[in-house]
Design brief:
Length: 243
């Protein structure tokens, strides 16, 4: 990696759908994108970013590991430049009846949703605080507000992430850092969700599924809000989704 004169957006959890869409949205504005995920392909999103006329750095990193998170943030800041925007977009959605939810499953989901969010938020905040500017965005879910049957682990993790974001917003907002939490209250179009929840996915119909690129626009708008009217929490759902 080498220094860049472009503003830097860090996407933690740049998967094939929402994470990549967020990366592309910031790429359209000339950001240098640092895209990370624990495993899986990053070549496609990197190519999409470069096709939009900007640059990308792809790094495999486990957001649950304190040393890896610290190393990642320090590397970006020392080799590329200051992080202007950080998006935490790690999932962790699994479905088990409570009697079948093992301690291992519950702990792993908590680590993905809550611990990883804390580690990323803390390390990014350390860099942004001396500059008194920056944006930190967390991706939540319906489970951030209500626990559904079979989703005790996921709801526990997402509730904790929301609480983290609330505390960070109150602490960092007066320091010039915008912290916001996006509740995705609906199904996002992707093959994994269609396979994970086939009946629910099919019942939504074509108009009842969230398009990743449309949702990514929300993240861009949050970053661009004037500081006199910052939004902390925003929920997004298809127009046909019942409340």
């Amino acid at each position: 990696m080498g220094p860049t004169d472009k503003p830097i957006a860090l996407i933690i959890g740049a998967g094939d759908h929402l994470g990549s869409a967020i990366a592309r949205r910031f790429a359209r504005e000339g950001f240098h994108l640092v895209v990370t995920r624990r495993r899986g392909d990053l070549d496609l999103v990197s190519a999409q970013i470069e096709a939009l006329g900007t640059t990308a750095t792809a790094i495999h990193s486990d957001a649950r590991d304190e040393d890896q998170v610290s190393e990642l943030i320090n590397r970006v800041e020392s080799e590329l430049g200051p992080i202007r925007v950080a998006v935490f977009n790690v999932g962790g959605n699994v479905r088990y009846d409570i009697s079948e939810t093992s301690t291992r499953v519950y702990r792993k989901v908590w680590e993905m949703c809550a611990l990883a969010g804390f580690l990323v938020g803390r390390e990014v905040a350390k860099k942004m605080l001396p500059r008194n500017e920056g944006t930190i965005l967390f991706t939540g879910a319906s489970a951030s507000l209500r626990g559904g049957r079979g989703f005790a682990a996921f709801a526990g993790g997402k509730h904790a992430l929301r609480a983290l974001a609330q505390s960070m917003a109150r602490e960092l907002g007066p320091e010039g850092i915008h912290v916001a939490h996006v509740i995705v209250d609906g199904l996002i179009r992707n093959e994994a969700t269609a396979e994970f929840l086939p009946d629910l996915y099919a019942s939504k119909g074509e108009d009842g599924i969230i398009e990743p690129d449309d949702l990514a626009e929300t993240y861009w708008q949050l970053h661009n809000q004037p500081r006199s009217a910052w939004t902390f929490e925003l929920d997004a759902r298809p127009f046909s989704e019942a409340w």
